[in-house]
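Throughout this chapter, every protein is written as a compact record of paired, labelled lines. An example of such a record is reproduced below:
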Amino acid sequence: MDTTVPTREGTTTMLGSELVDRLRARLRGTLLTPESAEYDRARAVWNAMHDRHPGLIVRCAGAADVIAAVNFAREHRIALAVRGGGHNIAGSGVCDGGLVIDLSAMRSVRVDPVAATVRAEPGCTLGDVDRETQAFGLAVPFGINSTTGIAGLTLGGGFGWLSRRHGLTIDNLVSADVVTADGILRRASEADDADLFWAIRGGGGNYGVVTSFEFRAHPMGPEIYSGLVLYPLDDAPAVLRFYRDFAATAPDELTCWFVLRQAPPAPFVPPEWRGREVLALAMCWSNSDSMADGERATLPLRTSGAPIVDLVGPRPYLEWQAFLDASATPGARNYWKSHDVHELSDELIDLLVRTARTLPDPETDIAVAHMGGATRRVAEDATAYARRDAAYAVLVHGRWRDPAKDDACVGWTRELFDATRPYATGRVYVNFMSQDEDDRVAAAYGANHERLVALKTRYDPTNLFRTNQNIRPLGEVREP
């Protein structure tokens, strides 16, 4: 059957069945079309706001399949998307009508416990890598949900519980194998193709398809001192003022994010508090060799008010990495807005607390990520990632299930985003950007944007890799 697909220029082209069959014959993996039994499952991504229907899905089994798919898309000028874990908020892992390079079946992980490195394929989730590294008492600084894919997280920068002590995910990236737009598999590292290595450390999926990541790992676990403390929202103004002053001098081993939300119907929440607005402090002491120090370091945050629940204590690292997964399950509708901030002023704290009393859905929340520490001790121009000076990232996390609530939830998210703008640095984490924020890409990279454009022009002059927070090459004509 012939297949009509969109081109990168916004027109359409016809792919004859013989041409599609030739592509299928070159693959070790699977080629899916809309008629395939697995098609609907393969096109679904984490954010249910994005219901797209690609013309072809190449479910890759290895780098050779990626090369074949990239060459096919380039030669026939087909619109292209690249899917790792499918977790991207903007839904960039899938496109309408074009070709999707699906890496989700590539999930091999190999740990070298002597060198303390790990090699992982791009379909892996954080949990996949964590389970392998923990067998050797090691961990890579990743994010905060075990179901997140490592590919998108890494290419955007990557930060979580271990970052204040051990740096961003990209600060622990040793090398990567990358298929660029010309179909060549390149090794990118400080010694090999250093420009490409610089660009993929924060530049997103703009420069190619990574088929293998090599990370540096650190001793961690098997237990880590971590957990949640819930306070009534009425206590939040005072607790957050204490938190702000405490966090300013906290040791690198301590990371504490906070969330303003309705208490979930979880077993650890007293029945009388379920569905009521609360402040949650999520804290982690990232030194498994000093649990007593972790208890001492976290105690002030756990006693700065009258907590509803205190769940902080020693627990397996793997358990903590998955502790918040229930709040990030697939299938919900998500629309996010985010700002970096240098400080939590009284005015910003009061604004966040006041707005938390108007949450439009029980799954919507306001999250603030604790940055700094080792992430700041890398020069801003050392990698494409350019948010080294941020003390916090404020994430307005719109999340709901009912499509009838789209306007209300999106509107609420945008309203709080606009209200917090006066307190922001102007920078933003690209992995927190929704699909309608192309105008913020240059600001996200600051002074690094000019070099990123030059490297995009060098490695992808026709903007083959454009279904992302796009860095456009010089000379490209923007589509109307």
The chain has a mean pLDDT of 95. The radius of gyration is 22 Å. Residues 406-420 form the longest helix (15 residues).
